[in-house]
Amino acid sequence: MNSDELAGLYLLTPPKIDLAPFGEKLKSVLDTGAVDCLQLRLKDVSDDEIRKAIDTILPMCVDRDIPLILNDRPDIARKSGCDGVHVGEGDASYDEARAIMGEEHIVGVSCYDSRHKAMIVGDKGADYVAFGAFYPTQTKEAKTSVTPEILEIWTTFTTVPCVAIGGITAENVAPLVLAGADFIAVTGGVWNHPDGPEAGAKAIKAAIAATEI
To answer: Is 166 marked within a binding site?
Structure first.
């Protein structure tokens, strides 16, 4: 990340949503201008529900020039017009995802605590790698726990963008920004914010900016 660039807020949706009310809430969050990228991350739902969610959310992202990344499913992502896909352990491999998505779409990969895996997929052409979890999270059971040092090492030796994920809030984001994270991935820190998700998104973006002044 260049010194004159702020780390971006990479917002993840909750794993379960009630589409109609969530769509209105999401629109308000995106209208804050704080979100730089959105990942649709639904768990234990049908393919049809995923497609319906994309049909609702994608136009909002297009109107605001925010990339929409689908978690897990490159097949649905490509056919539904998403900007990219994010794959992790147990999902499609990077090679499979890239073959489906093509070179013009984003493919990001969860690398947890493994710089070795990150180097492999980075050399193959991954658009970003994600490390975490940095802090305890209620969204999912973290496979690994890492420290900001992994970001420092990564950004020293490669230009492939890195994403920090796992339990991140406005109160604990600073060490990750200082370590060189290009994007800060957040779920609960926005959606569970006591003053509402709009306030949560603004707070994290402000904390990122304050760290990098």
So the answer is: no
Q: Is 9 annotated as a binding residue?
A: no
- Is 167 part of any known ligand binding site? yes
Kindly give, in sequence order, each residue whose CB lies less than 8 Å from that of residue 168, ignoring residues fewer than 6 positions away.
134, 135, 176, 184, 185, 186, 189, 204
Q: How far is CA 120 from the centre of its chain?
A: 20
Q: One digit per residue, pLDDT tens: the chain, 213 residues?
A: 233 478 999 999 999 999 999 999 999 999 999 999 999 999 999 999 999 999 999 999 999 999 999 999 999 999 999 999 999 988 899 999 999 999 999 999 999 999 999 999 999 999 999 999 999 987 666 677 899 999 999 999 999 999 999 999 999 999 999 999 999 999 999 999 999 999 999 999 999 999 975
- pTM attached to this predicted model: 0.95
138 assigned ligand-binding residue = yes
3 assigned ligand-binding residue: no
Does 172 belong to an annotated binding site? no
39 marked as binding residue: yes
Q: Six-digit token pair at 161? A: 């963008």
Known binding residue 211? Answer is no
Q: Residue 33: left if φ>0, alpha if ψ -120 to 50, beta else—which one? A: left
User: Is 139 marked as binding a ligand?
Assistant: yes
